[in-house]
Amino acid sequence: MDALTLSRIQFAVTAGFHFLFVPLTLGLAVLLAWMECRWVATGERVYLRLTRFWGRLFLINFVLGVVTGLTLEFQFGMNWASFSRFVGDVFGFPLAVEATAAFFLESVSIGLWVFGWDRVSPRIHALAMVVLAFAVNFSALWILLANGWMQNPVGHTVTAGRAELTDLGAFLANPYGWLKFLHTVFAGYIVAAFFVMAVSAWHLLRGSEVDLFQRSFRMAARFGLAASLLVVLVGDFHGSEVGKAQPAKLAAMESLWETGRGVPFYLIVIPDEGKEANALELFGIPKMVSFLAYKDFDAAVRGLRDFRREDRPPVTLSFLGFRSMVGLGFVFVLLTALAVWFSRRGAFKAPPLLLKAIVYALPLPYLACQLGWMVAEVGRQPWIVYGLMRTADAVSPGLTAREAALSLGGFTVLYGILALVGVYLLRKYAQAGPAEV
Question: Given CB 3.0 to 4.6 Å as the disulfide criterion, which of 26, 106, 157, 335 pairs with 135?
């Protein structure tokens, strides 16, 4: 493998591993703020115990997310120096705001929350968690606005081989960035909801702390149902934006080879990239791709043959990732709807089969998040900045395959150790249950 391929694998490994922790941080912070505010509002001590229990798991996950995120920035200089030079004038603004405003706000609020027990009033302590929940989502906004610019570059000019930000308003109003932010954040809320539901269900199946875990299960189920419905809604708008900004990605996501109007949606498709066609197409819904992409049943949709081979993304990977992600999204709607129905206030009747299903379904939201990012990044290829810079031109000049292989091996070993530590700690304290306070 050459330096480019190894660098791509390395960034995929490190970014994918980092994003195992980010979604849970985004959603669990909001759930914790809700729990602690309930404690302050009602005075019921059960909500204090819930806050302390889930707060410990949140902190373990938060620390692992911070540690694994630091390496991503170093790779911009080590492996992707040409990319960093090209986008530095654009990325400087959002990344500076993320670091100096959002991350500092996270640091202060989490410090107050961790060390403020019995040192500040319950209201101030709950406010710290509310601020923290806002800060972690505010931090994600700036990262995703930057990524949204890579997907749909706006408000810039290219001078002397560098992109320079010339219209801050266009950058901030980029619809691709905002849809990406909402889609990612709501997906993170689903991860947090299933995490809380799964741990709660595990304890309920064993009859431990029944009242406490019924409450956390109920709260997470409502939170998860709302997030699941919002993901479906935002995902629909996001798909339309992909059709406008990246028609080649849309064609790959649908494995559409021929340009046409009123394009049908096939429930079963087997792509054949070698023959530039689909080996199998079954159960077509007339004109549905045109409607989903452009909200017009007779809209024209460009096929992959309209693009040069070197400008097409990997079709099979994009198609399977997209179909799997969408299918999982509807599974989440079904499971959270059932969880809400059977955990109604005063009538908690969740059957053991549903509780077991939710425990075993815990990996699925994590998988859906990884698939979403795979579609977003693989579907953008061969561009690292869509239409402006190819991934092949973004790697650091002078980087050798040996150097890239050594850093890839080092990160893989380090992240493997962190994975073992993270899983061990989360499992240990999740199974231990809440302590008395």
Answer: 106
CB 28 within 8 A of CB 219: no
Burial of 251 (0-12, 13-18, 19+ CB in 10 A): buried
User: Facing residues of 272 across strands?
Assistant: 277
> Phi and psi dihedrals of 377, rounded to 5?
-90, -45
φ, ψ at 266 (rounded to 5°): -100, 130
Residues 143-146: contacts with CB within 8 Å, 24+ apart?
143/94, 143/95, 143/98, 144/177, 144/180, 144/181, 144/184, 145/94, 145/171, 145/172, 145/174, 145/177, 145/178, 145/181, 146/90, 146/91, 146/94, 146/95, 146/177
**d(C-alpha 74, C-alpha 396), whole Å:** 12
Q: How many Cβ atoms are within 10 Å of 414's Cβ, its own excluded?
A: 15
Strand, helix or coil at 318? helix
> Residue 237 and residue 243: Cα distance in Å, rounded?
10
Q: How many CA atoms lie within 13 A of 78 on its CB side?
A: 17
- What are the residue ranges of helices labelled H in 116-174? 122-151, 168-172
Cα torsion angle, 172, 175, 180, 182, sign: positive
- Are the beta carbons of 56 and 425 closer than 8 angstroms? no
Could you give the CA distance from residue 339 to residue 221 in angstroms, rounded to a whole number?
6
Q: Report how far residue 21's alpha carbon sits from residue 418's, in angstroms, rounded to the nearest whole number.
A: 12
Rounded mean pLDDT of the chain? 89
CA 87 vs. chain centroid, Å, equals 23
- Length of the chain (residues): 437
Alpha helices (runs of H) in 79-209, residue ranges in sequence order: 81-97, 104-115, 122-151, 168-172, 175-205
Is the link from the previous residue into 382 a cis peptide, with omega within 30 of 0?
yes
Specify the pTM. Answer: 0.91
Q: Of 136, 133, 344, 329, which is closest to residue 221 (Cα–Cα)?
A: 344
Give tens-digit pLDDT for 313-372.
998 999 999 999 999 999 999 999 999 988 887 677 888 899 999 999 999 999 999 999
CA dist 357 → 46, 129, 339, 344 (Å)? 26, 31, 11, 18
E strands, 317-385, are 343-344, 347-348, 383-385
Handedness of CA 376, 60, 190, 413 (dihedral sign): positive
3-state secondary structure of 282: strand
Q: What is the pLDDT of residues 106-117, one digit of tens each?
A: 889 999 999 988
